[in-house]
Amino acid sequence: MKQLTVWAIIPLLMLLASGCTIKGTVKQITDTTSNVTGTTSGRTWFTEEGILKPDFKVVAFVALNEENLRHDMASGQGEYLSSVGNLLNVPADRKAEFFTVVQARYQAFAAMDFTAPERVVAALRGVSAPLASAQ
């Protein structure tokens, strides 16, 4: 009977001891995630109220809609490309021109790394700036 009790207690102790390790690992992972989001994009992209700052709206849009935006860039039309035009202040009467220029430069945009959306936005600003200022 004693042997049976010892064999029942040992696995139970091992199970409880591993719980501390799992709890510690989860805390490490969540702390690291909090540090990354808190020190990089989190605090610079958002206000204290949690609202996305105007300067980062287009960057966030490009980052979150990469696949759809690539498709619209290739076709030279579409709601995602139109939304980017709106965020970049392209006048409605110049949108067709914006679409044409983006489509003509599609190969350059397709080669860009969308995991760095700031670069894509900078290139899109290069296309949209002359159109917005020419108004």
Descriptive account of the structure:
With 135 residues, the protein is an all-alpha fold. It folds into 2 domains: 2-39; 54-133, no CATH class. 76% of the residues lie in helices and 0% in strands. It is elongated and about 90 Å long.
Main beta sheet strand tally, sense and closure: none
Quaternary state of this entry equals single chain
Number of domains as seen in the coordinates: 2
Radius of gyration: 25 Å
Unreliable stretches (pLDDT < 50, length at least 5) are: 35-41
- How much is the average pLDDT? 80
How much beta, percentage-wise? under 5%
How many H/I helices? 8
Structural class: mainly alpha
DSSP helix fraction = over 70%
Q: How far apart are the first and last residues' alpha carbons, in Å?
A: 92 Å
Broad shape: elongated
SSE series? HHHHHHHH
Count of β-strands: 0
Topology record:
Elements (H helix, E strand, L loop, with lengths): L1 H38 L1 H5 L11 H8 L1 H10 L3 H9 L7 H10 L1 H5 L6 H17 L2
Helix pairs in contact: 3-8, 6-8
Summarize the structure.
By secondary structure, this protein is mostly helical. It has two domains: 2-39; 54-133, no CATH class. The protein has helices at 2-39, 41-45, 57-64, 66-75, 79-87, 95-104, 106-110, 117-133.
